[in-house]
Amino acid sequence: MDLPTIWFVAIAVLWTGYFVLEGFDFGVGTLLGVLGRNDIDRRVMINSIGPVWDGNEVWLITAIGATFAAFPAWYGSMLSGFYLPMLVILLALIARGVAFEYRGKVDDARWRRRWDIAIVAGSSVPAFLWGVLLADFVRGVPMDAEHVVRAGLADVFNPYALLGGVLTLGLFALHGAVFLALKTDGPVRRAARRTAGRLALVVVPAAVAFLGWTQAEHGTWWTLPVALVAVLALVAGSGLAARGREGWAFTATAVTVVGLTVVVFGSMFPIVLSSTTDPAFSLTVAAAASAPYTLTLMSWLALVLLPLVIGYQAWSYWVFRKRVAPPPASPPSANRGISATESG
């Protein structure tokens, strides 16, 4: 493979890592208002992702930075066409991060309730919008010969994109429910198991519909087996979660997220952004790439730095591998909310 293709694959890998890892903490945040029946349950849920949620966002920063450096034309076209949804995602992520840190700063139920709402919104909105944008990347948007995207809301939020958003929102919620069953103990764990089964009733049909639609209109010969594996892993993960095999269930839902991302990026290649105005205006990997010197320099830096980042994050997951359980007793101070940074 040439360097532009290698970097397209590298960016796809970065997005895959982001969706697998950030996907489950998006799911935990989305389910906060569903599974968190009281403040202790909500604290258990938040503490389950407290040590890792900000580290998971490093994958997003790296993916966007790599896109800017390796494919500046792709980066510019995405911003010109998807500025509003990307701004909404950014604001949601900011609100979510602030909520994690400030939730426990004041010992007041109303204070914590407001920040809980911010966590739910800051998790569910990006989980939905990322699916919308991924679907639009595959389907294409109105783009002129200068690669300027002139898309209205109807172009961005088309039926295919909305189905993609429903799928990622539901899949991340299911991924988060399985993670909670794996990572917590007590009432939250039992409720997460039940919720995983209920979510599967929606997520499995959505996955079949979206992946089938993608394969029929945009897929290639090799994305079909990947899509089938993704659906089978989703069904298996739902069944394993119901039987209390949380570790295998989490692996299965992670495989589904990986499969979905591979199908999306595989259906795009060799086009990074398709034009519905005229196929000749579509932006290809080769046309969007930076100069060979830039890609070569980036490759050497990635070979040195990426293993260090992955190693550090793997170590942090190992350190915080134990289950999070509610306190055995509830002293008067137990209802005080604590932030994610206090949970380590």
What can you tell me about this protein's structure?
The chain has 344 residues and is mainly α. The protein has 14 helices and two strands; from the N terminus they run ααααααααααααββαα. The protein has helices spanning 3-30, 32-35, 39-49, 53-56, 58-70, 72-102, 109-139, 153-156, 159-183, 187-217, 223-242, 246-268, 285-288, 292-319; strands at residues 271-273, 283-284. Strands 1-2 form a two-stranded antiparallel sheet. Mean pLDDT is 91; it is low at 330-344.
Summarize the structure in short.
It comes from Pseudonocardia asaccharolytica DSM 44247 = NBRC 16224. The chain has 344 residues and is mainly α. The protein contains 14 helices and two strands; from the N terminus they run ααααααααααααββαα.
Under CATH, the topology can be stated as: Formate dehydrogenase/DMSO reductase fold
Task: Provide a count of the helices.
Answer: 14
Query: What order do the helices and strands follow?
Result: HHHHHHHHHHHHEEHH
Cα radius of gyration in angstroms:
20 Å
Order of strands in the sheet with most strands = 1-2
SSE topology sketch:
Elements: H1 3-30, H2 32-35, H3 39-49, H4 53-56, H5 58-70, H6 72-102, H7 109-139, H8 153-156, H9 159-183, H10 187-217, H11 223-242, H12 246-268, E1 271-273, E2 283-284, H13 285-288, H14 292-319
Antiparallel strand pairs: 1-2
Helix pairs in contact: 1-5, 1-7, 1-9, 1-12, 5-6, 6-7, 7-9, 7-12, 9-10, 9-12, 10-11, 11-12
